[in-house]
Amino acid sequence: MNIGLLVSHYNYWVVIFLMMVGFYILISRGNLIKKVIGLNVFQTSVFMLYITLGKITAGTPPILTEGEVVYSNPLPHVLILTAIVVGIATTSVALALAIRIKEAYGTVEEDEINRIEAGIEAGG
Amino acid sequence: MLLTLLAATGLGLLRIRNLFAVVMLAGVYSLLSAGLFTVMDAVDVAFTEAAVGAGISTVLFLGALALCGHHESRPGHTPLLPLFVVCLTGIALVYGTMDMPPFGGADNPVHHHVADHYLEESYHEIGIPNVVTSVLASYRGYDTMGETTVVFAAAVGVMILLIGARTRRERPGGEEGDG
Amino acid sequence: MREEVIVRVGAKVLAPFIITFALYVHFHGDYSPGGGFQAGVILAAAFALLALVYGLDEVQRVLPPWFVQTCAAMGVVIYAGVGVATMLLGHNYLGYNALAPDPTHAEHGQHYGILLVELGVLVTVFGVMVSVFYLFAGRVRKAQ
Q1: Do the domain assignments include residue B37?
Q2: CA distance B24 to chain A (A)
């Protein structure tokens, strides 16, 4: 593994690392709120991947000015800008669901919910 | 550098079991990623991320914590299987990046589809300097309308979940109240 | 937190500036970073700040829930309405060139069109964020 590859792909790898951290939180933790946070980490890592793709070395933000300037790619910025706002909207739906589950079952731990469900089924 | 900090914050998010601290750390994570977006020239995105991630979403999470309790119980089963799945996926993804173009290259394929047109022609066609705004609202106006509708639909979802339940529960006698 | 003088005065001083800043971010979005999404979130954050410091009731007296819920719907209507208006003027759906006051400079219409649809985005995002915040905060207060 040479240094050039490390430098040119470091961003991708950290993005993948963060994505996997979010994924791991999502599948290994039982608490629903923690799961939502894991989803958020995952989501942000995808945002970073897109922005990373749009960056050009020595580029500037895509706001047009006089003269010859290299601009970074504006397209990923647009996509991610809207994705962030949609992300917070869906997160709030997820949290609202968690709140309703808490009210219905008295807990947001997946294991306990499963136990309660099993108890209901066994009891008739 | 920022990326390394982000990775460290991510690990913290994973380890800490007090959800209050986790939510605060998630705010830090958002701010760090906003800094990263600024470095990567995505100033509009950084702006949004700072306002949304560190502001509104932290408040919403705190509200949810106040209702759901802020301590996470120890996971009941062994973490080996999830860890295995995650490592496998991670290795597959890293293998995938070997074919990716180097970071920051000006002739990467992503920069040569429609981005050139946006950067060169948008000032004549739209007449405003901020390309992100002109792409957002004009070239991709349909997209943005869809996004706005999705945000609205999400709010309707939250309203159905949180308003409807309250009235139904209070009707049968008014003693049960809210848990 | 009711007794914290510094927090209360600080919030009172900050809030108008945050609201003005949100409007600046919206209307200056053509020339600098910003636009409807950011402005809506910042505006919502101003009211969330006030609600956290002064209590939910005080803020809901100024900004009742029915109003923000109507806002959330109105934003979508503004956005779609711009599209319908350009269609009525004989252009494509969301073809902003129709909005130009002077037909020889059709691209000026783009400017108005973008400002209008961004206004729709602002109103929706603001309405959604504040109404979701109200619902969450209302639940917390009921639970206590």
Answers
A1: yes
A2: 11
